[in-house]
Amino acid sequence: MKKLTTLLMVLGIILGACTETTSENEPSSSSKTHPSNQTMPDEMPDDFGFSVSFGYGKKNEINTFKGTVTKDLIDDGIATIDLVLSDAELLEVYEKMKEIEVMQPKKFNPKPMTGESCEQEPYEEDEWEIMIDGETIEHYISGKYCEPTEDAKQFHALRNFVYNKIKNKDDYRELPEASGGYD
Q: Cα–Cα distance between 12 and 130 in angstroms, integer?
């Protein structure tokens, strides 16, 4: 009987270590530093930068650290170009980030209404890395939920704001069109 109890305890520990659980109230973002309830400086710091990978498989990317933009061409792979946002454009993005308080904990996974969340496939994903005043904050937003949270909607709007700036640049418009699609 003692051996059975020990075996069950060991199995419980092993299974528990393999299962990732998240509290419904816990933010579904991760941070290299966990800046709880911090605010962004009024002035944009010199080290401000960000990267956002997005879309199906996160193949699109805007990366101000490297000064690059990557476009998902779907069936034809990806295309990466050098493309730098101006200081004025970075300041506009910084102000938008202040509006949605990107340094605050966020909730991206909706609370199920009837015990289950509506999920869809395929879905887009956004992965943000933001450097502000020496701190790096990371957020991951899954588009698998039919009803995104308010935080997820704000980050999608932020991504679209930045992406629209990129799409209007001549270098980006010269990239080939994507061919194919995602099912």
A: 38
167 found inside a domain: yes
Residue that the structure tokens 């805007």 belong to: 62
- Tell me, yes or no, whether 8 lies in a domain: no
Q: What does pLDDT average to in each consecutive run of 10 residues of the chain (183 residues)?
A: 39 35 38 59 97 96 98 96 97 98 93 78 94 95 92 97 97 94 80
**Would you say residue 19 lies in a domain?**
no
For residues 74-112, b (16+ Cβ closer than 10 Å) or e, as one string? beeeeeeeebebeeeebebbbeebbebebbbbbbbbbee
Range of the domain at 65: 28-173
On whether residue 124 sits in a domain, the answer given is: yes
* 49 contacts 64 by C-beta, under 8 angstroms: yes
Q: Enter the DSSP assignment of 76.
A: T
pTM over 0.85: no
pLDDT digits (tens, 9 = 90+) for 41-73: 999 999 999 999 999 999 999 999 999 999 999
